Amino acid sequence: MTETVAVLGTGIIGAPVARNLSKAGFAVRAWNRTAAKAEALSEHGVEVAGNAAEAVEGARVVITVLTDGQTVLESIRAAAPAAGTIWVQLSTVGDAVEELVEYADEQGLVFVDAPVQGTRQPAEQGQLIVLAAGAADVRETVQPLFDAIGKRTLWVGEDGRTGAASRLKLVLNTWVIALTHGVGEALALAEGLGVDPRHFVDVVTGGPMDNGYFQAKSAAILNDDYTTAFSVDNAEKDARLVLAAAARAGVRMDAVEAGRARFARASEAGHGDEDMAAGYFASFTDRI
């Protein structure tokens, strides 16, 4: 009999995670706070639960894919998985991982810290990179799940309770923030100076400064297409998580603080739900 996997959270990442697990042959039961976002999954063989507790009933593994640490904690408390359940935590939560570990210990849950690198398209294609920390005796159980949703898994620790994978995710997000605003500000300056922005892209393309992320975000801005792969508001949240962790570590993060402010300005201008490339609009005071 196929063991049931519960997925709590069916947003931009959670929905394709549930679909890809179902496609790989797992029995998937999903729940989302906004029920309408989960309903379409039934067409892909996913059982849609009416509440979090129903979703996790009898599940060997529970996966959380939600906005932030507080939401994850509220949802897992509402779900109340049985002691011994493996809890795979995919969300980006920063220092809040400590509270999640504390809850897992209190409830006898086996905690696997496993944030993912990647946004909408990699998630839909099952090409996420899973950053994982967890005990050796649960890896045999969770690795097939990771193989279904990602192109590779990087195991960074043997105890999910240390938060090692969540800390690595903060480091990676620091780089993503820098890349996003680097592209956005360069194209904004080009517009301000009357430079053809496509000349800038042409010079970078194929050279040492080029990368897939540059191509994707520059194309979004040049084509005025901000279809959300990862939203401005979520990027601003992630910047705050980086800053909080850095402050605790005594590390100054000037670029991330500036990047957080840019995302906030873009959100105030009405771009919060758009792709994080829309941080571009923070450069124009007359559009705020």
From TrEMBL:
Query: What positions does the domain 3-hydroxyisobutyrate dehydrogenase-like NAD-binding occupy?
Result: 163-278
Could you confirm whether the keyword Acetylation appears in this record?
no
Q: Which residues form the active site?
A: 169
Q: Taxonomy-wise, where does this protein's organism fall, top ranks first? A: Bacteria, Bacillati, Actinomycetota, Actinomycetes, Pseudonocardiales
Enzyme nomenclature, EC number: 1.1.1.31
Sorted keywords for this record are: NAD, Oxidoreductase
Under which name does UniProt file this protein? 6-phosphogluconate dehydrogenase
| Catalytic class of the enzyme | oxidoreductase
Give the 6-phosphogluconate dehydrogenase NADP-binding domain ranges.
4-157
Which Pfam families does the record associate with it?
NAD_binding_11 (PF14833), NAD_binding_2 (PF03446)
